[in-house]
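Aim 2 progress update. The chain analyzed this quarter is reproduced below.
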Amino acid sequence: MRVLILGGTGEARELAAVLVAAGTDVLSSLAGRVRDPRLPEGPVRIGGFGGADGLAAFLTAEGITAIVDATHPFAGGISANAAAAAGAAGVPLLVLRRPEWDADPAWHAVGDIRAAAAAVRGWPGDEVFLTTGRRDLAAFAGDDAHRFLVRTVDPPDGPVPGRMTLIMDRGPYTVDGETALMREHGIGLLVTKNSGGPMTAAKLQAARDLGVQVVMVQRPALPPGAAAVATVPEAVRWAGRQSG
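Predicted C-alpha cells:
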C-alpha cells in the first residue's frame, strides 16, 4: 500500500503523522503556493502534476494505491483533477474536509469571490476586513470606494485594491486579538470564506461581538460521487480498509 496525500492543511499533516507512525508508505504533496509551508511527517513533494492527466500518470508511475485529497476546502481545481486522475488510474480516492462553520442568519452568503466583491461594492460603509487569501485580491482591485484591511500568509503577487493596508500573518488567532484588530481599523464589514475549523474562527466571534457585518463565501461542491469524511480518524480507518 502506498498512500498519496494531497495536503497543505492541518488535517493533512495530522493524517500523515498517524499513517507514518503506523508504518504506512505515505507521500504528501503540496501545491507550492505558500512560501514557507508547514511540512508534514514523511516524504514530501512540492509542485503541481500538470493537471489531471499528469496526476494520473504520476499515480501509475509511483505505484500509488490510494489517494486522500486533504487540500483546502476552496482548492476546487485540485480536487476536480484528483477525482479525474483517480478514476483514470483506477485508484481509490477519499476527500477529507473539515466541517463548515455553522451558518449564521446574519451572514450575507455568496456563491463565489466575484459575488463577494459585488456585495462589497454595494456596501455603503468604508472599512472592510478581507481574509479570502492573496489569490482572490484581484476581484477587489477595482474598488476604490472602500478601504481594505487585507491579511495574507504571503505577499500578494497580482492586482490589489488601491486603498489597502496589508498584514501578513498566519493563524491560529484569538477572539481578543481579532477584536482589537477590528476596533483599531474601524472595520464594519468582514469578507471571508467558509473554510471551517478552529484556526481562523475567532474573527467570526469578534465580528458578532462588535456588530460587524459578514460576507461569507460558500464552499465549492465536491466532485460528483466523491467519498468524503470530516475527520482524520475516519480517514485513517478508510486507509486501513484499502490495505486489506
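The chain has two domains: 2-99+221-243, 108-217. The two ends are 9 Å apart (CA to CA). These observations will guide the mutagenesis experiments scheduled for the next reporting period.
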